[in-house]
Specification:
single chain; 234 residues; Rossmann fold; 5-stranded parallel beta sheet; two-stranded parallel ribbon; 7 strands; 38% helix; globular; Protein involved in maturation
Length: 234
């Protein structure tokens, strides 16, 4: 049974398909708001079955009364057998920052220096592929999913230095500075503004560092995020 994935995170889609190949009972629809710059609810409904078991993925943040929150609520209501996972940043995203650091020698972000709770993408995929019965039991509810721990930006920089065998300059900037500096790389302004806002919201110190919800859903403690390029962190 093929998974119908609607979203922009192709690596996550591939992991979902690989895991699903070994299973027989799982929801066939994944609506992924993560990574989307514009939140238009209609674009996440077209061609999907509103009566089928559905997993909705979104971004973990402190203030839920925002544009994304409105879309989350609308999708939960329209997909009658759906659950919503608000996740910490997926560890597949670390490769983007490692690549930038390798190219520039700088780890430039608007993340809080305290750091980010990176979540294992493999664990998120497992949470998406629970049984249809479990989806129906939890239908209409939202859950915050986190990884095992918060990784400070200094620690992430040290890991990049080990992987890349080069010195990295860590720069944690405020919103205005980060936007200004990223604009020098000729990135589209709407993408820059979304990325910076995402970094600020996902490392907000008002968020609980971790939750135990992921373990309850997948049946085992969260795996360590894939921080090193070719190996799991010890």
């Amino acid at each position: 049974m093929k998974i119908h994935y609607m979203g922009v995170r192709e690596p996550l889609k591939q992991i979902l398909e690989d895991k699903a190949a070994e299973l027989h009972d799982y929801p066939l629809q994944i609506v992924d708001l993560g990574g989307s710059i514009k939140y238009e609810s209609d674009s996440f409904i077209n061609s999907f079955d509103l009566d089928a078991e559905t997993i909705i993925l979104s971004n973990r943040r402190y203030n839920l009364n925002d544009e994304l929150g409105y879309v989350e609520t609308e999708l939960l209501q329209k997909y009658k057998k759906s659950i919503l996972y608000r996740t910490s940043p997926l560890d597949i995203g670390i490769e983007l920052y490692r690549g930038w650091a390798a190219a520039t020698g700088i780890l430039l972000t608007a993340f809080s220096p305290v750091g980010v709770n990176w979540i294992s993408t493999q664990d998120v995929a497992s949470a998406c592929l629970i049984s249809k019965k479990d989806v129906n039991v939890r239908a209409g509810k939202a859950f915050d999913l986190t990884g095992a721990e918060v990784i400070s930006m200094e620690r992430l920089k040290d890991i990049f230095e080990q992987d890349l065998e080069m010195q990295i300059d860590l720069q944690c900037k405020n919103k205005e500075e980060a936007i200004r500096m990223l604009m020098q790389n000729n990135m589209p302004l709407d993408l820059i503004e979304w990325l910076v806002e995402y970094q600020i919201l996902s490392s907000d110190d008002r968020l609980e560092p971790t939750t135990n919800i992921l373990e309850q859903i997948i049946g085992h403690p969260p795996n360590a995020a894939q921080l090193f390029e070719n190996k799991q962190i010890n």
